[in-house]
User: Fold this.
Amino acid sequence: MKNLIYFGLILIFCACSSNPQKEMEKKLIGEWCNPYTYQSTGELKGFNFKKDGVCEAINIPSLDLKTWEIKDGYLIIKGTSIEEDGSKEAYETKEKIEQLTADSLSLVVQEANPRLAFLYLNTKIIKEKVTPQVNTTVEQDSTVNTDVQ
Assistant:
């Protein structure tokens, strides 16, 4: 009976100490890239979410990202956008997290009808799940038949 009480207290403690916000933050830490870009170009482009809210862009030279946070189910990323002429302006995005697993992150735009805005895969698995398209060139016969019948 005594063991059952201790087991029950442990379950209650675990249930109370579980923080969904912190769990999401732990899952988000790592590199996340767009699978469509990888499939079409073979390039990994996306975000590196680090501990303590530090964020970096992966292969996106127009973004100098600084911070990330999750607030009320939204992923907020802040930094600087670098324009082609070299000018800089503040960059901030706030997207609703629709799904976050160890492998995928989907963000939606919250409008009247929510729609998928971004899908990212963890770079640890992207190469297993997505195959880049290979650009092939077809050699054409250099002789042209100009005979008209």
Notes: The longest strand covers residues 88-100. The helical segments are 2-17, 20-28, 35-41, 126-129. Confidence is low (pLDDT under 50) at residues 4-15, 136-149.
